[in-house]
Hints:
It is a single chain. It contains 1 helix and 14 strands. The chain is mainly beta. A 14-stranded antiparallel beta sheet has the order 8-7-6-5-4-3-2-1-14-13-12-11-10-9.
Amino acid sequence: MYKTLKQYRLKRIFLVLICGIIPYLAALKAAGQSHTYEIRYANNTIGLLDVKQETNGPTRKIHIKSRIQMKLLSRMETDITAEYHNNILIRAKASRVSKGADSKETSTEKTEKGYNVVRKGQPATINREITYSVSELYFSEPKELKEVYSETHGAFLPIKQLADKRYEVVMPDDKRIYYRYEKGKLMEVEVNHQFGKAYFRLLQGK
């Protein structure tokens, strides 16, 4: 009887451990998010945009990669990385390479007093904390935000919610980018430029 009771207790301990591990494993899986967006221009697919966020305790790393191929713009490659610790930006880097044109790179590095920013070789400083950047728009809806930091431009950009529930970001050249969410998930980005409108549309199941 003692042996049977001991076996019963061991089984209960085993089940408790398993029940505790399953949510933990689920949490580990949820700690990484990735999405793929189809880039469309003039009713044609011209590339893909991949976004990925990895979380490890208080540290979050975001990676964005886009590859565009079209006759008018030739080939363009964009890579953005951003690292956060306790929801404060620690460092970021954005690079854009186009065939036949000089590459463009912007780096942001946290210091004791703020940030050192280098864009196209020109240094600048930011004397305030950065808690939300453009790359985060792909993972969380920017409710009640008034501005967002651009890893590419090395500056804060105004953002506001419109009557149709989309969010409008105003670029330094006064062009507009619109972000549309459904239940907190980014579904579409509308980019306005001199050649017309381009759209980034979420591929379901990706």
